[in-house]
């Protein structure tokens, strides 16, 4: 199982690395996310960027270490958006 330890990454690389690792998973596969703080912001990004495509369960909830198990449950078409905020200028919609 893949583990992403964000404590070893520069802050500006963390989100992209986690999403890239998640996107490489097949449906039913999981990855572990290790952090030194509650990954609340990342959880919110998953809700917005990968809705209904994952299960998130904490294996350890601090205070010094946070360990989450993130399982891919569905494949999303990342070129689609249904959030109503698309202006259409990028050509994706």
Summarize the entry for a quick read.
The chain has 93 residues and is of the alpha+beta class. The chain is 26% helix and 27% strand.
Helical proportion, percent range = 25-40%
Low-confidence stretches: 87-93
Percent of residues in beta strands: 25-35%
According to CATH, the fold-level topology is Translation Initiation Factor IF3
CATH level-four homologous superfamily name: TusA-like domain
Number of DSSP strand runs? 4
Q: What would you report as the Rg, rounded to the nearest angstrom?
A: 14 Å
Structure description:
This protein has helices at residues 11-24, 40-49, and strands at residues 2-5, 30-35, 54-61, 66-72. With 93 residues, the protein is an alpha+beta fold. It has one domain: 2-Layer Sandwich (Translation Initiation Factor IF3). β3 (54-61) and β4 form a beta hairpin. The longest helix has 14 residues, at 11-24. The relative contact order is 0.19. Residues 87-93 have low confidence and may be disordered.
């Amino acid at each position: 199982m893949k583990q992403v330890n964000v404590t070893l990454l520069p802050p500006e690389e963390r989100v992209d690395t986690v999403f890239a690792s998640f996107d490489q998973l097949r449906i039913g596969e999981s990855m572990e996310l290790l952090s030194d703080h509650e990954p609340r912001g990342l959880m919110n990004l998953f809700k917005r960027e990968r809705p209904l495509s994952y299960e998130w369960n904490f294996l350890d909830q601090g205070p010094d270490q946070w360990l989450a198990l993130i399982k891919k449950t569905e494949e999303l078409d990342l070129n689609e958006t249904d959030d109503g905020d698309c202006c259409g200028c990028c050509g994706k919609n």
